[in-house]
Write a structure and sequence with these properties.
Layout lengths: L1 E5 L4 H12 L3 E6 L7 H8 L8 E5 L7 H5 L4 E4 L14 H19 L6 E7 L22 H20 L3 E6 L2 E2 L8 H11 L2 E5 L5 E2 L2 E2 H13 L5 E5 L6 E2 H12 L4 E5 L14 H7 L7 H16 L1
Parallel strand pairs: 1-2, 1-4, 2-3, 4-5, 5-6, 6-11, 7-10, 8-13
Antiparallel strand pairs: 9-12
Helix pairs in contact: 1-7, 4-5, 6-8, 6-10, 8-10
């Protein structure tokens, strides 16, 4: 079997490629190295896997590829490629989100109609839920995203459903809840905070730090993708949350300080537009239907991410 991973040089994509290769799978990875963050970091994500005999890497924009030809060569699609970032998605930047999150997904799904793909796994986001006190968040909740990024992820998720409903494309959408771990993007909070503490810089916290998240280790996200691909489920949506309880941002920073052995200099600012107060995944559905069991908790995952960032910044 051959597996296609879009966004293969990114945070989750590169970890997924590595997980599939470790299972002995044949993998094709596509990435166009968008300038959202430094190309060197993405190349570093690939350095341990780029030479693998069972890995083929294609540097290209998916909107410019012959997708029918590409998909004719693979059995499974893991669509991880997207323009990330809640705070960057406002204003003129939204054009990038419509191209990289909505148009790309529609073009891939259109090409999948002509293929024999066994499963199309789409990387969605807890951002589709918006700001709600209805916790834990269930897949059946009313969806009211409060950022353009969340709107774009929901639009692509809806495209996955309608291509399954109308054309039988075997899609599954996975709503990730605040993923962290090795290779995390430099715009993400954990990466920013850990880097600042390691290098003695001030960290900025938007809000009072009492906002809370269900943090999900990247290795557990890899597990969820593979379980989804191998399942008989189609046209379905699943939450992907982490091991352990919802944790406040202040407590998370305290854990970072304890692991690093240094106190952070903190500055609190107003809440950023598009940020939500709390997220928490109801994982009943994915545990029952896919047998998903997140294995890595916040403490262990942070230890691994901090060790990885020490190598980069120290």
């Amino acid at each position: 079997m051959k597996h296609l991973v879009t966004g293969a040089a990114g945070f989750i994509g590169s970890n997924l490629v590595e997980g599939l290769l470790a299972r002995g799978e044949q993998v094709v990875g596509v990435d166009c190295f968008t300038d959202y963050y430094a190309r060197e970091l993405k190349e570093k994500n690939l350095e341990k896997i780029i030479e693998a005999d069972n890995f083929e890497f294609i540097e290209a924009d998916l909107l410019e590829l012959d997708l029918v030809d590409l998909l004719a060569r693979v059995d499974y699609v893991y669509h991880q490629a997207a323009q990330a970032g809640v705070r960057a998605s406002w204003g003129q930047s939204f054009d990038i989100y419509t191209d990289n999150n909505i148009r790309v997904t529609q073009q891939l799904l259109e090409a999948t109609k002509e293929s024999e793909i066994k499963k199309f796994v789409y990387a969605s986001s807890s951002s589709v839920y918006g700001d709600t006190d209805n916790l834990p968040m269930q897949e059946t909740n009313r969806l009211q995203p409060v950022s353009p990024y969340g709107v774009s992820k929901l639009a692509a998720e809806n495209l996955c459903y309608l291509y399954w409903k109308n054309f039988g494309v075997p899609t599954i959408s996975l709503r990730y809840f605040t993923v962290f771990g090795e290779r995390q993007r430099p715009d993400m909070a954990f990466h920013i905070f850990i880097k600042a503490i390691l290098t003695g810089k001030q960290i900025t916290i938007f809000g009072d730090g009492t906002q809370s998240r269900n943090f999900t280790y990247v290795g557990d996200v890899v597990q969820a993708n593979i379980l989804a691909a191998e399942s008989d489920e189609k046209g379905t949506i699943f939450n992907v949350g982490g091991a352990g309880e919802r944790v406040t941002l202040n407590r998370t920073i305290n854990i970072m300080e304890e692991i690093i052995g240094k106190e952070a200099e903190k500055e609190y600012q107003a809440v950023a537009k598009g940020d939500v107060k709390h997220t928490e995944a109801d994982e009943t559905k994915i545990r029952e239907k896919l047998g998903y069991k997140p294995k890595v908790g916040l403490q262990t995952g942070l230890e691994r991410e901090i060790a990885w960032l020490r190598q980069i910044y120290l």
